[in-house]
Amino acid sequence: MQIPPMSIQILSPEVVDQIAAGEVVERPAHLVKELVENSIDAGATRVHVEFYDGGRIVKVIDNGKGMSPEDLPKSLERFATSKISKTDDLWSLRTFGFRGEALASIASVSKLTLTSRRAGDEQAHQLISEYGKRKEIDKVGGSQGTTILIENLFDNTPARLKFLKSDSAENSAIKTTLKAMALSHYDVEFRIQENGKLVAFWPACKSRKDRVEQILEIKPLFEGEASRENVKAYAVFADPHNVAKTSKNIWLFAQNRWIQDRSLQAAVNEAYRSLLMHGEYPIAAVWVEVDPDCVDVNIHPTKSQVKFQDPSLAFRAVAAALRGTLEQAPWIKRSDVATQNVTMPLTQNSSEEFKSTDGLPNFASQPMPQQNLRFQDNSLEVTQFQKKEFSFPASSFPVSSLQQPQTTYQALAESAAQRESFAPKAEEASLGYWSSLEVLGQANLTYIVTQSRDKLVFVDQHAAHERVVFEKLMNAWKGGKVDIQDFLFPLAIDMSPEKVEGLLTMAKEMERLGVFIEALGPGTVGVKAAPLMIKESSLSGVLDKMATEIVDQGGSYSLERTVGDICATMACHSVVRAGQSLSPDQMRSLLRDMDMFPLSSFCPHGRPVSVEYPYYKLEKDFGRIV
């Protein structure tokens, strides 16, 4: 059926306002965000938010500077704002609101009650608007600041109302939004009520780190910062032991605005490369600051996205801010080294120190058992623990302990108070964390059993050695000590001109990684040389993926990630295996090598290397303490 042509008409203000409301106030959480941002712009230091029925009723109370009676009706006009006055102001914003659309849009789809009082005014003034129709301004009682009450949201737009999710889902979205607002404003007090019940109270904090710990309820958290030209990134994040099952706990802020950005999210994940297992996501809050004229915040109606002039700088700054701290492994308590228990050395009768010609432990020279030593029957399975004889230096124990001989197991069962009285040797204080652990033996030919002052530590020998070899391979590659193959003729790879240009801009950086390229045409790049460890057949895929990331994110992370995967595979197939017997000296040597690399807590695939069992748990299990 042919639709007859219609003449062009100018839409009525009511229709225009409802169209704008559909963009700015897509759901109640967006409404709450707009109202809270107005409170922050007004200088509020306390914000109280109440919401009912999935956000169809919302009240926001603040102690900001308030509005005059003359400004109340103006605030409900479209494109009326006190925050900008000319075009150039859009590129030097210092406020969160700037369009002057939010209140007008909200008022068109709800009953809105606006109450405000300035400092010095005798009383507050109130304006009521029902679906865009305003009443007269009344004088009412009220404290300094502004209170906005939204009722019957979307009642005049049933089509939009039916697209709202369940009350619990909308309430959850509102609480997520308020978490983000509180994270971005650590110096503002937030009080949140859901259906009349107080669900959150976040007093003002002294720093961003304090606020993140307060809201996410995770301690300890760590900080990192980095700069790339005019882009600065600051991050507060959890260690790789504290992870999430989704990416919802990656909080991103640009110019202190809460945003959604896949590139920056990828930068956070990149920083945790080789530290998390598949399906695990970091917990982090990241702030990116850049010159106002180098970022556009006016590209989305809800202001949830921004556009950087140079996205690659933001990506690299964020990745560096987290990785710089992660590589120091601050979650390892260095104080453990200086407070070690008395040394209980193993007798040196098992085997000689294994030797190495390339700096790596020569586990290959040790015989591989045909099977794990394990006793089995139909009812239970008992894993054999390789017991060793221990010698106890008499001078290391308190005088009372010399009155009668003690067995190995009696020594392990000493109370925490008595263990703390043991004085560490001077040479022990200089040891690294892993080498300071006292080796007790090997369990199931798979786990190195060690102890410190307050806990038993089981170390997965395969995962530990895999990390050591992986780090040594990566260091050799990054240091330019990797073998390179020159191609007789350049290997031609076809891709889009945009990708070719992106690769050529990173040519110098790629040469440091061992890849030498040249342009063979507008849509073809030629590879003159590449690392031997990268198969020629995989170069096309590697470079195409790298070019895509350079265009979208910037940086040379794709190639390094690929080489990292190759190094991880090489390490996995060339290290000690589970089920392989190790001598005490071999175990100590592996622990010493682990101290060379801060990330030794995880294998290259993100699997944990060690498991700890505090002595207090053993004592509780044995009934020694309650």
From TrEMBL:
Highest taxon, organism lineage: Bacteria
Cellular component, GO annotation: mismatch repair complex
Keyword entries, A-Z: DNA damage, DNA repair
Gene3D superfamilies per the UniProt record, alphabetical: 3.30.230.10, Histidine kinase-like ATPase, C-terminal domain (3.30.565.10), MutL, C-terminal domain, dimerisation subdomain (3.30.1540.20), MutL, C-terminal domain, regulatory subdomain (3.30.1370.100)
GO biological process assignments: mismatch repair
Residue ranges of coiled coil: none
GO molecular function: ATP binding; ATP hydrolysis activity; ATP-dependent DNA damage sensor activity; mismatched DNA binding
Sequence ranges assigned to domain DNA mismatch repair protein S5 in this UniProt record: 215-327
InterPro entries: DNA_mismatch_repair_CS, DNA_mismatch_repair_MutL, DNA_mismatch_S5_2-like, HATPase_C_sf, MutL/Mlh/PMS, MutL/Mlh/Pms-like, MutL_C, MutL_C_dimsub
Domain (MutL C-terminal dimerisation) ranges: 439-582
Alphabetized HAMAP family for the sequence: DNA_mis_repair (MF_00149)
Record-linked NCBIfam families: mutl
Function: This protein is involved in the repair of mismatches in DNA. It is required for dam-dependent methyl-directed DNA mismatch repair. May act as a 'molecular matchmaker', a protein that promotes the formation of a stable complex between two or more DNA-binding proteins in an ATP-dependent manner without itself being part of a final effector complex.
Family: Belongs to the DNA mismatch repair MutL/HexB family.
Protein name per its UniProtKB record: DNA mismatch repair protein MutL
Species whose genome carries this gene: Bdellovibrio bacteriovorus (strain ATCC 15356 / DSM 50701 / NCIMB 9529 / HD100)
